[in-house]
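Hi P.,

Sorry for the delay on this. The queue was packed all week, but I finally got your sequence through. Input first:
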Amino acid sequence: MQNKTETELMLLIKEKHRPALEELYDRYIKLVYSFILKSTRDQEKTRVIVQLVFTRLWTTENGYNPEKGQFVNWLLTVTRNITIDYHRKEKRDRVFIPFKQEQLDYIPDSSQNDPEDVVSRKLIRDQVQKAYQYLSKSQIQLIQRLYWEGYTLSEIAEMNQEPIGTIKSRLHQTLKILRNHLVLDMGE
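Then the structure:
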């Protein structure tokens, strides 16, 4: 197997020839592992993604096309795409809670022991949670994805399969509702 090219190995892999996959693994494991580790900075996640990459090589229908470039570039592209998919799936799989307690607790304070500050933070937290009741599920999801999960408006539009203009309009309406209810509720 060691004298075979990557193209030949990929053809053998398509025929489910296990030693061909093992040879590619031996040749590229260090590169793939270090590439993923730079993104995840977590050895356990890196191992999981490495397994996904080599599983993809084993199960891919299309495979590598030598006319489109070098094997190493194709492999790193596959690795990059799987890593991105893994990160996105990880974000999506988190339990959806409009505001997580630790996010609300992050409201800055000058002194955690000052009773006035503690009460003030609790009131703000309660008002934010109360204002969420005026939002639809899609509006809450938009706020969650944009502000707490770090997705861009373009990514959200793609995930929802909606035009970006629709997402921007929904965001504008959502912020207007939150602003009105936070101001009204805080003024009571």
